[in-house]
Amino acid sequence: MSSPEKAPPRPSLDDKPLPQIEPPSAGFLVQLFVIPMIIVGIIVAVWMMFSWLAHMGSNPRELVRDLKKPNEASWQRALTLADLLRNPAHTELKSDVEMATELATVLDGQLDQESFDETSIRLRMFLARALGEFKVPQALPPILRAATLERDPTEIDVRRTALEAIAVFASNNPDAELSEDEACMDALIAASRERTEVAAEQQVRADLRSTAAYVLGVIGGDSALDRLVILLDDPYTNARYNAATGLCRYGDARAVPVLLEMLDPENEESGLGEEHESGRDWKRLQVINTGIRSAAQLLESNSTDDLEPVRAALQRIVDSELTSFGSRVRHGIRLSAEDALLAAQAHVRL
Question: What's 266's DSSP letter?
Answer without folding.
Answer: T
